[in-house]
Amino acid sequence: MLTPTHRSRDIERSPEYLQPDKCTPPPPDDSMGGIWFIKDGCGIACAVVTWLLVVFAEFVVLFVMLVPSKDYVYSVINGILFNTLAFLALASHMRAMLTDPGAVPKGNATKEFIKSLSLKPGQVVYKCPKCCSIKPDRAHHCSVCKRCIRKMDHHCPWVNNCVGENNQKYFVLFTMYIALISLHALIMVGFHFLYCFEEDWTKCSSFSPPTTVVLLILLCFEGLLFLIFTAVMFGTQVHSICTDETVSGCYYFSTLVFNFFFFFFFFYSGVFNQPLPPSFLDLYLLYCLKVW
What we know:
Layout: E1 7-8, H1 41-66, H2 72-98, H3 111-116, E2 124-128, E3 133-135, E4 139-142, E5 147-150, E6 154-156, E7 161-163, H4 168-198, H5 209-243, H6 248-268, H7 278-291
Parallel strand pairs: 1-2
Antiparallel strand pairs: 2-3, 4-5, 6-7
Helix pairs in contact: 1-2, 1-5, 2-4, 4-5, 5-6
């Protein structure tokens, strides 16, 4: 039975919150037929962009560097290695995106549920007034997922999901595979440039020399950017697992830096010659501040 010595953060100030008829029903889940999927426009767009960038890297690696190469063994070995890592990266991305990160059941912040916990005298009970649930230790509420997530590390828009207790391993694998294919692509770009400098540019690619150079530079920029970002994230994730901590602060800073350079390059460096309106950037920054 719940005794006066039990404490419940926020419940002490609002005792009526534990009444079943006073607990506001939570909104419906964002899952689709039992499949965990967050219906967030920005997150879905970022996830699609992630896949498109991997597909672009596949296109440049295969049709600009490997297929035109005269070294058959070099093309086969690097093609198998790159495609295997890309497949594992996309598979890990799907698992991280479609796996329940550890959502706490909604609507259990009631007196009956508190009594069923058989709490010890003086034990603290945490509740979330937003999703009307009792939170376990180290659970945090995500404003995007609209759920409390057990051992929540951060919400990642690139996988359109929170990184929590159940899907952190898939996120770690995703960052590792992306870092590996980025490094692999950069190495192949370096060898291809050396090969083209020694040979005739018209013979080292199926495309025209200007098109080849532009595609290789874009791939080099993409690979370098994602190598730095995913390598940092992989390192912080492994460190957080070893120390049993979260990296929300480090992720917040690194994500803002990454997103700044990403959007600056694609929308303000003249690649598409049409900069985004200031209102879009303001909304994007507000979204970042809201998530983290």
